[in-house]
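User: My collaborator sent over this chain with a note saying "see what the structure looks like." That's all I know about it. Can you take a look?
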Amino acid sequence: MTPDDVRALALALPEVTEADHHGRPSFRLGSAVLATLWDEDALNVLVGESEARAAEGGPCSLLWWGRRVSGVRVDLAAADPALVADLLEEAWLRRAPVRLRRPGPRSG
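Assistant: Without extra context I'll predict from the sequence alone. Here is the result:
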C-alpha cells in the first residue's frame, strides 16, 4: 500500500477530510483524527484498545499513548488493502455521529 492508496480509502469514508497534524497528513471526521500517515511506510490508525489488540500481529503493532493503547501502527508495505480499509472504517465508526451511521441515502 502507498500513501495515495491510504488517502483514497480514507477520503472515501463519509465526511472525512485531510488536514495537517504536526507536519504529517491526517484524516479526520470533523476535528477528530482518525488516522495519521506517520511516514511513507507507516499509518497510525486510532481504534479502540480491543480492536487494536485484535489487529495486532503481521503488519500491525500496538500504538501507545503513554500507558494506554490508542490504536495500531500499520506497516504499509506488508498491509493488505482490505485490512487498512477495515481499520479506517473502525476508526470512523468510533467517531461518526448517528446521522452518518444510519443506513440509507446520505446528504452532503
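A starting point for your reply to your collaborator: The mean pLDDT is 93.
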